[in-house]
Amino acid sequence: MTNGQTMHTLPGPYQFPTTRWTLVVAAGDPHEKEARSALVSLCENYWYPLYAYLRRRGYPADQAQDLTQGFFIRMLEGRYLDRADPEKGRFRSFLLSSLKFFVADEEDRDRAHKRGGGALVPLEFSSGEERYRREPAHDETPERIFERRWALSVLDRVVEALHNEFVQHGRPDHFERLKVYLLGQSDAPYAALAREMKTSEGALKVAIHRLRKRYRELFRQEIADTVADPAEVESELRYLATVLTRK
Length: 247
Hints:
Structural class: mainly alpha
Oligomer: single chain
Order of helices and strands: HHHHHHHHHHH
Distance between the termini: 50 Å
Shape: elongated
């Protein structure tokens, strides 16, 4: 008891399943029954880097939207997946390369007439264009814009997954309070937050350590979902770290 308040111990590490299957492998395997849902998931999660790439290449918003949507429709129809090589299977690189082929094919064709079937992947283009308008006005190449947006999309996915785990365990308030310490983004003293959360400073430090550890685990899992070979995970982690720190 401190100042008449009950001291609480913050929750210990949660137990989560560790067996996962790689989305990019499933998406590229026509015999895998989860292939379509896997590909839809990847498209929904990582469409914005491609959209930003097209906008930086100079396409106006409506044309970039058409190209992005048309590209994913073709992907869902099974196009381009036959070029995916599991031996060098970074989905990031494969996706951008496939988009370039698609754009080259589309330049002299009537996209509206050719696609006609409508949108198959729900993409939030209005929010995407708003995000693009907030992009810094620098001279980075479209490829670099794509890589940075890809890396930030991975981070967003991981933070969202971590938040959802806290929600599932009925502790979303804990996540909101602790997330400022997630990547060493805050040097605020622990004492005040510990008092606010009615716990000890030591327990708070342990909780922050567990949060960071779980974040790293989820980050690795997210990367593993976008490479075909587990041996690629470490190099992809290093590459994305370089992209995020590149000036």
